[in-house]
Design goal:
GO terms for molecular function: oxidoreductase activity. The protein is of the alpha+beta class. 27% of the residues lie in helices and 21% in strands. The strands form 5 sheets. Strands 1, 2, 6, 7, 8, 9, 20 and 21 form an 8-stranded mixed beta sheet that branches. Strands 10, 12, 13, 14, 15 and 18 form a 6-stranded mixed beta sheet that branches. The two termini are 23 Å apart.
Length: 478
């Protein structure tokens, strides 16, 4: 019998598998995707949000615990478990030596990402390189990996894991880590969660999925509905970004994100603005825009900029629609020209331009306009003009399994002794809503390591340990 069964193939699953193996446990990892598509959404990531009290190699200045916590508190609106959140924050300050030990390399922030040069450590080669490094290390350590191996149900007796069923095969293990992602790729579940709006639309029908097609939420549904595991989170809350409407249905990744929102205005299909584009720095607020667009007619928006914005944001994979005048741009985007011009003229006339500086919360704001634009408000008046059609792009969902600082799955508020959860399947404990760049990888890394350590202890009949993993512990048997 295997000691630790890990279900999932992304960052959290790999961290769990590596930790369990380092602790001396035999480990089998089941990844539902084919080898070429392994890694889930982690393959599309590029950085990790890290607490640090002083400059550290690729991280500049300092990003102390309290600032990290306040950033998280702001974007979640208080919908977070402070104890678990602070545990993730503290774990983010110590995990990088362990990551390097397993082949992950870091690089300084690139042009276009300087807003997060102080807060986030970037992976050299991005998330795909990180995933590949972890798989190489896992295989070298003797972790068994099976691809195209979806698990559809578990045997659980009195809250204790017994076995998993994978394509008709029963797989027993002494303990198990669930790290199989959310349900963002399950269109029917998204439709169920979002329902029908007052315009008779089914918003979820127009959602694009930024990441993997393999996160169907099968095990999550099974745990909630069949086994009554304690749940956390709202099924409509997700890491949801405004992305190019021309993006593919799955796996568009970062390159389809539209990052010029804060440099211009966003209008809906009625050619009207609907939110403050300059509310806060883009890395803190970019993940609200998918949900905002999802609430608009046809789940569509349009990001409008002029030539002054060019070179100030990460260019997307598709070029914007270009025009030499604003009426021409409206026509090319299929928007009502008269309404569009009223919206743009009202905005331009309300701009009170101060000292524009996109690296700070500057004093360029609108006056007497609703909704206001509170920073970086400059008239859109310099040809050529550009427009990008937007759709909601779902990265991962927040509905998940409730846990504690041992990463144990809970049943009726009683923790399981040998079933643990990590990554997107429990991220809602920390992320009730909202997002800030890199925190998903922080959660997956912290809880993946905790779950893997405690699964190895459970396989030996020992009780789970509370709290974050320290690097000196993780290298004990490496």
């Amino acid at each position: 019998m295997i000691d630790v069964l890990v279900i999932g193939g992304g960052n959290a699953a790999l961290c769990a598998a590596l930790m369990a193996r380092e602790a001396g446990a035999s480990v089998l990892l089941l990844e539902s995707a084919p080898r070429a598509w392994r890694g889930g959404n982690s393959a599309h990531t590029r950085n990790l949000r890290c607490m640090h009290d002083a400059p550290q190699d690729v991280l500049v200045d300092a990003y102390p615990e309290e600032e990290y916590w306040q950033d998280l508190l702001k974007v979640t609106g208080g919908l977070t478990n402070e104890h678990l959140a602070r545990m993730v924050i503290r774990a983010s300050s110590t995990c990088r030596p362990w990551m390097r030990h397993h082949g992950v390399h870091f690089q300084p922030a690139l042009a276009g990402t300087l807003h997060v040069a102080r807060t986030n450590a970037f992976f050299m080669g991005g998330g795909k390189a990180l995933v590949n490094a972890y798989y190489r290390s896992a295989e070298a350590l003797g972790v068994q990996v099976r691809y195209e191996s979806p698990v559809d149900r578990l045997e659980i007796v009195d809250g204790q894991f017994r076995a998993a069923w994978c394509q008709g095969e029963r797989i027993e293990a002494r303990s198990c880590v669930l790290a199989a992602g959310g349900f963002e790729s399950n269109r029917e579940w998204l439709r169920e969660a979002w329902g029908q709006n007052g315009r008779g639309e089914w918003p979820a029908d127009n959602f694009l999925i930024r990441g993997t097609a393999y996160n169907q939420g099968v095990l999550l549904r099974h745990m909630l509905d069949e086994h009554g595991a304690d749940r956390i989170g709202d099924p409509t809350q997700a890491h949801m970004v405004a992305i190019d409407a021309r993006a593919p249905l799955y796996d568009g990744g970062i390159c389809t994100r539209i990052d010029c929102v804060s440099l211009g205005v966003v209008v809906n299909a009625n050619a009207e603005r609907f939110y403050d584009e300059g509310e806060d720095f883009w890395p803190k607020r970019y993940a609200i825009w998918g949900r905002l667009v999802a609430q608009q007619p046809g789940q569509t928006g349009y990001s409008i900029i002029d030539s002054k914005a060019i070179g100030r944001f990460m260019p997307p994979v598709f070029p914007g629609v270009r025009a030499d005048s604003l009426p021409e741009l409206a026509a090319r985007l299929g928007l009502d020209v008269d309404t569009f011009m009223r919206t743009l003229n009202s905005y331009n006339g309300a701009c009170r331009v101060g000292r524009f500086d996109h690296t700070v919360l500057d004093d360029c704001a609108t006056s007497g306009l609703f909704p206001a634009k509170t920073h970086w408000a400059r008239p859109i008046d310099t040809a050529p003009f550009y427009g990008y059609a937007l759709r909601p792009g779902v990265t991962f969902t927040y509905l998940g399994l409730q846990t504690d600082d041992t990463a144990a799955v809970r049943f009726g508020d009683r923790p399981s002794a040998n079933l643990f959860v990590a990554g997107e399947m429990m991220a809602g404990n920390v992320l009730g809503k909202g997002y800030t760049a890199g925190v998903g990888m922080s959660i997956g890394t912290a809880f993946g390591r905790i779950a893997g350590r405690n699964a190895a202890l459970a396989a030996r009949g020992q009780s789970a340990e509370h709290g974050a993993v320290k690097d000196e512990e993780s290298h004990a048997s490496a």
